[in-house]
Structure prediction request, 136 residues.
Amino acid sequence: MTAPQRRRRTSRQPDPPDAGEAARKEGETQNPERLFVIGGDADGERAALDLVTLIVARADPPASATPEQAALLRLCAAPLSVAELSAYLRLPFSVVTALLTDLLAAGLVQARAPIVRQTVADRNLLEAVMHGLQKL
Prediction:
């Protein structure tokens, strides 16, 4: 059996740039705006929206809409909850509610309360199902 050969260390090459630093720089170029710029005025009154409020677009995005508002209007062609919109746009809930407040004031979207299902089924319906099963 041969003994392992030892190698002398040579001068080290300079370390490659930090991969995390490069990723941070790329992230900064992708989304340079701060959330308060997107969300608009913090002093303004916000609509009373919660996570399960359904939002439906009433119109196509106007030319004056910001990119975030246009994305909201395109997503809301079918009813979506505020939580879903926040997840799809990768924006915090507070920023999405600020954007939706502006769209609600302009009449471009409609907010609907979530559909609440009855907790107890109608007695007549249950009796009809029971009689139908007995006839089988």
User: Anything to note?
Assistant: The chain is about 45% helix and 5% strand. The longest strand covers residues 54-57. Residues 22-29 have pLDDT under 50 and may be disordered. Residues 34-112 form one domain.
